[in-house]
Design a protein that fits this description.
single chain; 43% helix; two-stranded antiparallel sheet; globular; 7 helices; 3-stranded antiparallel sheet; 7 strands; alpha+beta; 196 residues
Length: 196
């Protein structure tokens, strides 16, 4: 795919992108079963978004809905969302966290007030929610979005088998990713409103 280099942002060199792809293929042998068209779509999408395979995103094989083939699908990771937010030039910082019962968490989304301190004395108790906080340059306070456990569970239910396994192995990382991705979508909507 010779056009890939033209799609990549300046901060992602072609050799690093290719190394990430090679690593994806070597760690996920089932990608060889994917249709060439789906592989091309996933690679072009990763390049267009400026995502480094193996760091910012994964390319995973999924069975088609009819079950008669396998298609490659790009799955953006938490780090990829952070990287894309940073590239906008509008974000001072962004993060997402899991909140447990013994943590100190205060959030009023309308008043843009939030405090978070992780409980450091051992067991943090049961999981309560996830949140993302994004500080836009020039704003006094970060924008905060809380994701309830029900919202996160709904996202988890829609996942394919391969991504569902990630929820089993790294549930809090996937919950944080969900919270940040929803916040990123919200910020993209703000951009569309400003343009229109």
């Amino acid at each position: 795919l010779p056009q890939i280099q033209a799609l990549l942002p300046r901060d992602l060199p072609m050799d690093r992108f290719q190394a990430g792809l090679w690593l994806q293929f070597s760690l996920t042998p089932r990608l060889a079963e994917c249709t060439p068209a789906s592989m091309e779509r996933a690679i072009i999408r990763a390049a267009t978004l400026g995502l480094e395979p193996g760091r910012d995103c994964c390319i995973l094989p999924f069975r088609t809905r009819r079950g008669n083939g396998t298609e490659a699908t790009l799955v953006e990771e938490y780090q990829g969302i952070l990287r894309r937010l940073d590239r906008t030039g509008r974000i001072a910082w962004a993060k997402a966290e899991a909140v447990f019962m013994r943590d100190h968490f205060l959030c009023d989304e309308l008043a843009e007030v939030y405090e978070f301190r992780r409980h450091l004395g051992g067991d943090r108790g049961p999981l309560v929610c996830y949140f993302s906080a994004v500080k836009v340059r020039g704003d006094d306070k970060p924008l905060v979005r809380v994701c309830t456990l029900e919202e996160v569970a709904e996202v988890k239910r829609t996942m394919g088998r391969e991504e569902y396994e990630a929820w089993v192995r790294w549930p809090h990382e996937m919950g944080k990713k969900t919270a940040l991705k929803r916040q990123a979508k919200y910020l993209r909507l703000l951009d569309e409103q400003e343009e229109g």
